[in-house]
TrEMBL record:
Protein name from the UniProt record: Amino acid transporter transmembrane domain-containing protein
Highest taxon in the source lineage: Eukaryota
Statement: the UniProt record of this protein carries the keyword Zinc: no
Transmembrane segments: 47-66, 127-148, 160-176, 183-205, 225-254, 266-288, 308-327, 348-368, 374-400, 421-443
Subcellular location: Membrane
Positions of the Amino acid transporter transmembrane domain: 44-439
MF GO annotations: L-amino acid transmembrane transporter activity
Length: 464
């Protein structure tokens, strides 16, 4: 594909903008957060901090779950899934960013749904956004509670550790601006990266996987191509897809950038690093652990390395959960206070709404974390139910909205139009098939004891 054709696929044709009617101040052209006297400035994040926030939103969850998904699919299909889904997620993130450049009144993916499909689509999209980030917020809490369990040798009931994790996440999420969270994301990303690297080095030093029988013959379980059931295969594919599908969370961050035109640069750096890390780390861990890989994968190299990895990665796991709670709370916060003076004023209403939304999102995520305490099932559920329509289907629709004339244009324009229709159909398949698959897997896990009863003290989070 030529550079010119690639550019055409990303850059939309001119479109009317229902958010920008009449003459407005160029500095605040359609933006949700205004600049000027009397406004608390929310647009303070540079592109480097933006890229790090994006990295932290994407990186922590996927790198902990992809090795176990590779066992289900096999090394080759697993690697193809990583590359394929990451390419689509990156491309769809660029579509969303370009769409927002054309329609700067869009603070969230729900605003984009409103523009292309009206109020009903807006509300459905908003609900899906909340569902997605509440579920991945729950996965962050499971990660923190798993770390606390590992570090304390399960000294408390897992349910208590989940409560502690929820409190840690809530405190970290409570900062109002992404600029304030940006500083802790540096430490969060570094901690998870180093923790995963410790595990990668650790598994290469073992004669046999830590979870495998240490004497006699055993089934290693490494497959170049595996043969899973439909339910298991679609759940694994959905888990890998979800590992890079949180791109709808990029949009609220974009609304707080100093220069939103730097969004594309931040996305490319983020997704390039994430893809390289996912592929290299997951292949090495699966190569050395086979079927004995843990989920989350930080527990794959034995108890000593597990404690070291969780000790180093605890900050990053907490920051991940905090970011997910923050973006879901920020969506509700803006919905409630938009177009009122309280949105950017230090009033009692402003702080009351912000504190209330943080508390509500934390409690709901905690309830889910306690009910489905297996890390990869949570991510697969989020990927199927919510991220498939948000990260694939809606971006395809956004592109079609801004290129409505392409279906009767040149052959190349018709091909592009058709490919974005296929993108929408793919999202429908992943939503239906993936949801079915993960429900089947969760029910089987409850039947065979992999998941104990909800709110129990059993440490289920290391199950794969």
């Amino acid at each position: 594909m030529s550079d010119e054709k690639t550019l055409n696929m990303i850059q939309p044709a001119p479109s009317s903008d229902s958010f920008n009617i009449g003459k407005v101040d160029p500095e605040n052209d359609g933006e949700v957060f205004k600049r000027g006297e009397g406004y608390e400035d929310f647009r303070t994040v540079g592109w480097i901090h933006t890229a790090v926030i994006f990295l932290k939103l994407i990186f922590a969850t996927g790198v902990l779950t992809i090795p176990s998904a590779m066992y289900t699919l096999g090394a080759l299909p697993g690697a193809i899934n990583v590359l394929g889904w990451q390419f689509l997620n990156t491309y769809c993130a660029l579509i969303q960013g370009q769409f927002r450049h054309n329609h700067p009144g869009c603070h969230s993916i729900a605003d984009m749904g409103n523009l292309v499909g009206g109020r009903i689509v807006k509300e459905i999209t908003g609900v899906l956004f909340l569902v997605a980030f509440i579920i991945v917020g729950a996965s962050g809490m499971v990660g923190v509670s798993t770390a606390l369990n590992a570090l304390s040798n399960h000294s408390l009931c897992t349910n208590y550790f989940t409560i502690i994790a929820a409190l840690m996440v809530a405190v970290a999420a409570s900062a109002r601006k992404f600029e304030k969270i940006a500083w802790i994301t540096w430490a969060g990303f570094a901690s998870v990266f180093i923790a995963v690297f410790i595990v990668v080095v650790g598994v290469t030093t073992l004669d046999r996987p830590a979870a495998a029988p240490q004497e006699g013959d055993f089934d290693f379980g490494y497959h170049v191509i595996a043969h899973p059931t439909f339910a298991a295969g679609i759940t694994a594919a959905s888990t890998i897809f979800c590992s890079g599908a949180g791109t709808s969370a990029f949009l609220p961050v974009m609304s707080e950038m100093k220069n939103p035109r730097d969004y594309k640069k931040a996305v490319n750096w983020c997704m390039g690093l994430v893809t390289a890390a996912y592929l290299s780390f997951s292949i090495v861990v699966y190569w050395y652990c086979g079927k004995w890989v843990a989920s989350p994968s930080l527990g794959s190299a034995g108890p000593i390395v597990k404690k070291a990895a969780y000790g180093v990665g605890l900050i990053g796991l907490c920051v991940s959960g905090a970011l997910y709670v923050h973006v879901s709370a920020k969506y509700i916060f803006v919905r409630i206070l938009r177009n009122s003076r309280h949105l950017q004023a230090n009033t009692v209403v402003h702080w009351g709404v912000w504190s209330g939304t943080i508390a509500a999102m934390t409690v709901i995520s905690w309830l889910i974390a306690s009910g489905v305490p297996i890390f990869n099932y949570l991510l697969s559920l989020a990927g199927s139910v919510a991220f498939a329509p948000l990260a694939l289907g809606l971006p395809g629709w956004l592109w079609i909205y801004d290129h409505s004339g392409y279906w009767k244009g040149t052959w190349w324009q018709k091909l592009q139009y058709g490919l974005h229709v296929v993108l929408i159909l793919l999202s429908i398949f992943l939503t239906i098939g993936g949801t079915y698959g993960v429900i089947v897997q969760i029910l089987e896990a409850y039947r065979d004891g992999s998941i104990d009863s909800a709110f129990s003290c059993a440490d289920n989070s290391n199950s794969s």
